[in-house]
Design brief:
Largest sheet of chain A: 4 strands, antiparallel
Strand content of chain A: 15-25%
Oligomer: homodimer
Number of strands of chain A: 12
CATH architecture of the largest domain in chain A: Sandwich
Strand order of the largest sheet of chain A: 1-8-3-6
CATH superfamily of the largest domain in chain A: Jelly Rolls
Mean pLDDT of chain A: 92
DNA sequence: CTGCTACTTTGAGCAAACGCAAAGAGAATC
DNA sequence: GATTCTCTTTGCGTTTGCTCAAAGTAGCAG
């Protein structure tokens, strides 16, 4: 097995404030693995044996309901932690993680979590900061789901995606991983049909360009306008 | 100013695993305050000067949108932490907290947070566990909002409320603080009209009894059935 | 007791979005 | 190059739940 270089993780938020020897020690117990597209990194409700850092690729975090419906909780970009059930005092994963493109991840045995958190206080702080910001994110999402209607939610969703994973192209900003109407529907609590209708409508207005598993936002600012109140603002 | 007795907080989850001298030290810097019904403990977006533990009463946590809509995030019961913006690395409160009955809270200056977390590791662990469980709760809520329809959501909401704040009475289990149709609507992302219609419907079936700012669940088990799939389960 | 305020109920019409169904288009496989 | 599979589009009927409006009711203040 080849040694992992410290530079892999040195710049990441989770490892901020750690000195070189700590980083090396942490990497000692890490194993790197490749995950091919559509493969699961971990499954909901299974034993939380490991926690991970995504080094390259994109990962979809999905929660399934008992009756088989799915909700896409978030997408993970390189540098982020995932599967940190241990940090929340859980023993099973609350969701599944699927590679949406070929990925590279580092994995640590879950039982090392408490050791790391005490041995490297900054690491503990950093991860809890992550958890905190995810809590904020998801609270915002609840507010959105409670107060906005579908069109606004989908618009917000696209804006968030291009902010997180946008790549500038000739036409505008593209979401740089394959994402279907169904995926967007599962992020926003609607159906793929409604998403499809919205996208074609927006395409006619020149707001977006979209195709199979692919969305480009042509005019982010006009989409933002849609994302805020469309009607009702005429006071 | 009278001294605060250690027994006030000794049993609480947040202070589990702390020895008596630590508890005393922590209480040294606490101040207790009474909050009368309908008064705010802190306001959304204001400087997060303090964090709190609720000793007695009930507190409603509300998030407001820029256009004035409100979403009730959760209710806090005695023993729980609130206003822990610091733990999430935030400097302002992400929501407002309103006393729904007369309350007693302990308050600490926010800047003590990091000191406590490092000086009393169990305290840090405990609070992060709290944050973790709130993350789980709210993720479940997102899934609910995305996949269930209003009737199920309201049923789930009532079940959660009686679990957290239920008091056994002759008629059934009552939510032991004043809660309006509007409040329930703001928890479930619907309107007070729809909640009212649902409750009267359920009352006719003998599932609940309700009145002004008051709801009693007569048959929790039948309500649970409603909360899961009503139709569509006939496979 | 009376009037006021806040909360609740109920009706009627309407719009948003879903469910169902079928056809069309892109990509991958053989 | 034909076939298959998956993803997407689009039409239509239906439903859910919202909006608007108005009346009813309980508690509170004077």
């Amino acid at each position: 097995m080849h040694r992992l270089d410290r530079s892999l993780i040195a710049g990441l938020p989770a490892f901020q404030g750690l000195d070189d020897s700590s980083l090396d020690a942490i990497l000692q117990s890490a194993s790197s693995l490749r995950v091919t597209k559509d493969q699961a990194i971990f499954d909901q409700d299974s034993d939380a044996h490991s926690f991970f850092v995504l080094l390259d690729g994109r990962v979809q975090v999905v929660k399934s309901t008992p009756d088989g419906q799915q909700v896409v909780v978030r997408y993970i970009v390189p540098g982020e932690l995932l599967g940190i059930a241990q940090a929340l005092g859980r023993t099973t994963y609350p969701a599944s993680a699927i590679a949406v493109v070929d990925c590279v991840v580092l994995a640590w045995p879950g039982k090392l979590w408490p050791e790391f958190a005490t041995a490297y206080p900054s690491f503990g702080m950093n991860t809890y900061r992550t958890v905190g910001s995810r809590l904020s994110d998801i609270q915002a999402q609840v507010v959105e789901m409670a107060t906005e209607q579908v069109e606004q939610r989908v618009a917000h969703c696209l804006l968030r995606l291009i902010k997180q994973s946008g790549k500038q192209t000739n036409d505008g900003i593209t979401i740089d991983f394959p994402i279907s109407r169904q995926d967007i529907a599962e992020m926003t609590g609607t159906t793929l049909h409604t998403v499809s209708r919205l996208l074609t409508g927006w395409e006619e207005k020149g707001l977006v360009k979209s195709g199979r598993q692919q969305v480009t936002v042509v005019e982010p600012s006009r989409l933002s306008v849609l994302a805020e109140g469309t009607a009702r603002d005429n006071i």
